[in-house]
Amino acid sequence: MSYTPSIVGSGISAYAYMQRTQSQQVQAFANTGQIARDLQHLEENIQKIETVDELMADRQLLRVALGAFGLQDDINNSGFIRRVLESDLNDSTSFANRLSDKKYQSLARTFNFGGNAQLPTADARDTIRGTLSSLSSPQALFNEGNERLLTQALEAFGIEGDEDRTVFLQRVISSDLDDPASLANRLEDKAYLAFAKAAQGVEPRVDSAFLSAVDDDIATRLEALDSADDLLSDRGLLRATLSVYGLEDLTDNTYYLKSVLESELSDPDSFANTQNDPRLAELAAVFDFQSRESEKASVYGFAEVFGDKLNSFATADDLLADEDALTAALTVFGLENDVFLDTESNLRAVLDSDLYDDASFANTLDDKRYAALANLFSFNEIAGGEDIAEAQSALNNMVETIESRGSSIKTGDQLIKDAGFMIATMSFFDLPAGVEGAARFNKVATSDGLDPLSFVNLIDDSRYSAFHKAMDFKAESADRTYPAGFARTLSEAYITRQFEVAVGNVDTSMRIAISMERELTDIVDSVSSNDARWFSVMSSTPLRTIFESAFNFPSSFAALDLERQLEDFKERSESVFGTSDLSILLKPEYLDPLRESYLSTTTGTNISSSTGSQIASILMAGG
């Protein structure tokens, strides 16, 4: 059974009816015939697609992929689509980047067969972050040969035109992001802060596609959250978050939501992954609080706490008086919940142990982590007159090693290949050195911590399990991955686009009217310069139709030279709207009357022969 959209009346009245009924009509449309079958096929098969060949071979899936971007008419143009999907978007000369219609670029970016897929709502910032992370340092962005990358980065963050301000930009990306007084944090334009975070490899704390679905104030508050409890304690923020997924009815069920938000998503048996509603796992993935907690318990969390406290703890009393530092120290050794150390006398006895004396307190305990903790601070040696920096060299070296690296170690193999990091780690956890010690360290580092029969889980020395857990290794997957919500987001885009096609089969002008805002927004978001945006408008049939109608251009206008057309579009826009900046035209006070002026021409009213001043009157009345 097919669905025919209901359109009552024509022109402005028909659009008003469509606005009132569109959500219900779209839902009915999604549940019918081929659309429903396509969506089910997408849900069941998208995770299996690893290569361009596999997508091209699945015609039903390809139809959804193209349809989600309004490119369904290209389904038989296989050679062309293949070149789009194989394009390297970091190469300005690649096929997709050279096409004036940026929907092809969005298609290539979403499937990203050179890496892992991205949500269809991902923007140029998400793409450029991956490229910047591959640089040896943030300052390498300004090296000879990286001029194009610098331009792309500035364009992605909306600060194009600053290429020549290299001293200023270098200060921005060198800013201490934890210092409110640093340059990047003090600048009123927060695009520079976002640019600095990307250059320093600081990932957005909350999924960027999700943040684009909420207003700026909500997004800022969500980025500041540290834990699930922070979100659950703010009812308004929680409700705004849940509303994105249509889960507002769970607002009061905080215990249930806490279990969802703190789920380990890499574990298929975790709470969120075992719920029947897939939106819950997507919600957990947006914040990934569990990973944040894992990082706090890692050597990286330890380094963050101790970074500005090196050589500050000369006695056990100093450490016991600093709750954050003490917690970080116990946690990195997996001792934060150790009942034995709940007694302060025991903890103090461990910390003050003389490790050169086999009969000292820490050395008489079976668990070698106690002696490793005592060795890290060496309070007994400091009391004997040894310099604090020398006594705590293992601690200092670990923190300094972590701070000198641009990113964290992801796997055991990476750790073994980084000799400096490996030596610092062995010393930090007081692990045996030498040939045999290094061989054992390597076997532990490359063990699968989730496998109960792996070497790290069988070795009879708790220091190794503490080391392995504190490194917070991430399992590498040989498979291509799709982000949480990929199928759902692609489905929504597909339904929206195909509903517009169905509307167009009934009333072409209505299809143009309901797609106008999205089409124009896509251009403004994906194209950096204003002239390039106008060229994109000129290459978009629906947008060109709307603007030509509003500007009362004759049918022969399209035959003019493109540069002449560009100048005429901009000049007429200045005359009618008072601006030729397309980003400004996205404001409702311009957008709504523009749509109305177009719809009025479709009903044969006198707007079809109106002048620029008459349209301006419409705009003023609408504003």
UniProtKB/TrEMBL annotation:
The lineage of its organism: Bacteria, Pseudomonadati, Pseudomonadota, Alphaproteobacteria, Rhodobacterales. This is Flagellar protein. Pfam families: DUF1217. It comes from the Bacteria. SUPFAM superfamilies: AGR C 984p-like.
